Amino acid sequence: MSQELVFAIAQAQAAYGRCLDEDRLEDWPDFFAQDCLYRVTSAQNIRDGYEASLIFLNSKGMVRDRITALRDANIYERQAYRHVIGQPLITAQTKERVTSEASFIIARIMRDGTTDLFATGRYLDSWRQTSAGLELIERVVVCDSSRIDTLLALPL
Amino acid sequence: MSQELVFAIAQAQAAYGRCLDEDRLEDWPDFFAQDCLYRVTSAQNIRDGYEASLIFLNSKGMVRDRITALRDANIYERQAYRHVIGQPLITAQTKERVTSEASFIIARIMRDGTTDLFATGRYLDSWRQTSAGLELIERVVVCDSSRIDTLLALPL
Amino acid sequence: MSQELVFAIAQAQAAYGRCLDEDRLEDWPDFFAQDCLYRVTSAQNIRDGYEASLIFLNSKGMVRDRITALRDANIYERQAYRHVIGQPLITAQTKERVTSEASFIIARIMRDGTTDLFATGRYLDSWRQTSAGLELIERVVVCDSSRIDTLLALPL
Fold first, then answer.
1. What pLDDT shows up at residue A152?
2. Which residue of B has its CA nearest to A16?
3. Which of B8, B81, B87, C148 has the CB geometry, 3.0–4.6 Å to A14, for a possible disulfide?
4. What pTM, to 2 d.p., does this model score?
5. DSSP characters for C109-136?
6. pLDDT at A90 over 70
7. Interchain CB distance below 8 Å, B89 and A18
8. ipTM of the complex
């Protein structure tokens, strides 16, 4: 039971990373529930108890708008990501939701081929099981470093 | 069913990475079918529709020859790899083959201990199920960066 | 059976990495058996057949003492790790123990936000199954690079 659920979450994580890494940004909102929360913050903010977020989107509409804005602006230098996501751990489970946590390492590949270790951290997630599979009610992306500039970058 | 298959692929991926990371290059051909295709290319090539490959080996014999050539030449600086491979996603399945995709990050460790992020990308694989386990009919290694020089390097 | 065991090991690995990455060092000894061995060495040492270790702790008490010493000394610059651990492979299995191997990549995040690829390598583990889950009888951390300075750093 737990093994099946961890498997389903791992598959959803892999699909999520693949979607972003292949620049299929328009498909990214499909991972979220209508009433979702997507938030990017830092470990330091969490430690200090700050509510501040680098990105804060609290509906699927806002998640969609972010992609539209990114595509319209188009002023960021062309870049790609590569996600590698660790095995998820289930941290709580109720009838309505499953919360899980997983480590990530994201490499960034610039147009000229330069590759660097762009971001590391963990996903704190709440998932809802639907007939179509798992959807994210909440994803808090906790970056280990406070140096992340996500103003114009791709979603994590 | 699908969970068992993903598990089997993940185990084969881990064994593949381990074989290369431990410099057991002579065992590397054993992951491939007789009539295999092994190809290394870049995301840019794929986007542009180019067939060009950095490495192109279309039989198990050629896969073996590559290792012999590498060992004979022996002019590359001593180096080791470390693969970390993400959870595979099954992208298609027929009686004859299963195709899957997985992200990878490979670090390179030079003789003097210097470690860098050597390559990131994804494996596009076709597997055949045999009585001895899974074998690769096809592995296309799509590097995110076009800067990869694989002329004399180890297989990815 | 094997799938369940690999799953259990992968979950234990993820929990282990999470414990260290969240700076819950005091919980780290709980992953070990009373009569454990924890050892950090390099691939070069293993190749040369040297028994030398960068860290050598051969009881749970020594594992605990290491954390106390680290906390007391407190002279290392504040830093955090981020583990990403590959799928484990079971290498042997008896009634008493299961041995497994897994690749790791660890990023280090300094106080100022600088992130680098700190260590890569593999865990060579022996696990004992208890009613409370898996515990480590032995963990040999084999770093790919010989440059690792673990004198005052966090456990790997």
1. 60
2. B89
3. B87
4. 0.95
5. EETTS-EEEEEEEEEEEEEEEETTEEEE
6. yes
7. yes
8. 0.92
Please report residues of B whose CB lies closer than 8 A to that of C122.
Answer: 18, 21
- Residues on chain C touching A101 (C-beta within 8 angstroms): 18
Distance of CA B11 to the CA centre of its chain: 14
What end-to-end distance do the CA atoms of chain C give, in Å? 29
Closest CA to B9 of A110, C3, C101: C3
Residue A148: the pLDDT is 79
Q: Is C146 on the interface with B (CB under 8 A)?
A: yes
Q: What is the predicted pLDDT for the residue at C73?
A: 77
What are the chain B neighbours of C4 within 8 Å (beta carbons)? none
Residue C155 lies in a domain: no
Nearest chain B alpha carbon to C42: B113
DSSP letter (8 states) at residue B86? P
CB-closest option in C3, C85, C144 to B115: C144
The per-residue pLDDT for B79 is 87
Which residue, A51, A37, A42, A54, is CA-closest to A127? A37
Q: Which amino acid is present at B53?
A: S
Q: Could you identify the residue written with the tokens 């390598």?
A: C121
Using an 8 Å CB-CB cutoff, list chain B residues near A12: none
Q: Supply the range of the domain harboring residue B56.
A: 3-143
* Cβ-Cβ contacts under 8 Å, B120 against chain A: 82, 107, 109, 115
Residue B109 lies in a domain: yes
A107 contacts chain C (CB < 8 A): no
Q: Looking at the complex, does the CB of residue B3 fall below 8 Å from at least one CB of chain A?
A: yes
Count of domains forming chain C: 1
Q: What angle do CA B2, B8, B9 make, to 5 degrees?
A: 90
Q: pLDDT tens across C48-86, in order?
A: 988 888 899 999 999 999 999 888 876 666 789 999 999
The angle at the Cα of B107, spanning B73 to C37, to the nearest 5 degrees, equals 110
Q: Which residues contact C152 (CB under 8 A, 6 or more apart)?
A: C70, C73, C75, C76
Does B49 fall in a domain?
Answer: yes
Q: What is the CATH number of the domain that holds C9?
A: 3.10.450.50
- The span from the CA of B149 to the CA of B108, in Å, is 13
Is C156 part of a structural domain of the chain?
no
CB-based contact (8 Å) between A27 and chain B?
Answer: no
C66 touches chain A (CB under 8 A): no
Read off φ and ψ for residue C50, nearest 5 degrees: -80, 140
- Reported as a pLDDT band with limits 50, 70 and 90, residue A150 is low
Hey, are the CB atoms on A114 and B145 less than 8 Å from each other?
Answer: yes
